[in-house]
GNAT family acetyltransferase (Bifidobacterium minimum), 241 residues
Amino acid sequence: MEQEDETVEQEDETMEREDGMNATRAVGSAGAANSEAPHTSVTAVTTVTTAGGDGSGPVGMVDAASIVGPSFLRDSDGLTIVTITASHDAEIARIIRANLVSFHLDIPGTAYFDPELDHLSAFYGSRADRRYFVVTDHSGRPLGGAGLAEVAGTTDTAELQKLYLSDDAKGHRMGYALIERIEAFASAHGYRQLYVETHHRMAAANHIYLRSGFHRLAGPLAGSVHGGAMDRFYMKDVMMS
């Protein structure tokens, strides 16, 4: 079991380095550990992000035997997950655009041209059931993040959105940590499903979504904003809190 877990962690880190991506992209939500992840429990003490009342909080040590899923953080290195503020907007927009450029996805129909991209704190702060989480280093510098917002036309489905990390955050499995935060927030706000869109070029993203328990859909949900430019679509059931 320990060898299997170590191999999985090495594979995940290799994928992150090779694709330089928006790890959701490492542990892409965030929040308390997700009890629905389809992997076996890790039996060591592992560093994972702790959930505050609003889903924000510093990384901390927990008994990984209580986590169903792969080990989420190799070490903390002072990384923290916080709720986005206006002070984060410019750098998060830059990180997202840089990631999309690296995959030649700076094209109409992707997040690169989203009208809210330069003001994510306002967009995600406009409703109580939306949230964007930011990974920061010890100095408070934003290193990436991931968000959640409602899917139009549904009452129980949210979309995991804009999970991108800078190079400084990669290799710490923060994509997985962000996904945990998103799942915990979704559960607390009555969502029963998480939907996400990505592209086949983002191999690490696809790998992490599958590792996190998402299953692939044949196509985008009705009303998808980015469904014309993205070509990989996933869904996951959320455990109600």
Summary: The helical segments are 2-19, 89-102, 120-124, 174-188, 203-211. Residues 1-11, 18-53, 57-75 have pLDDT under 50 and may be disordered.
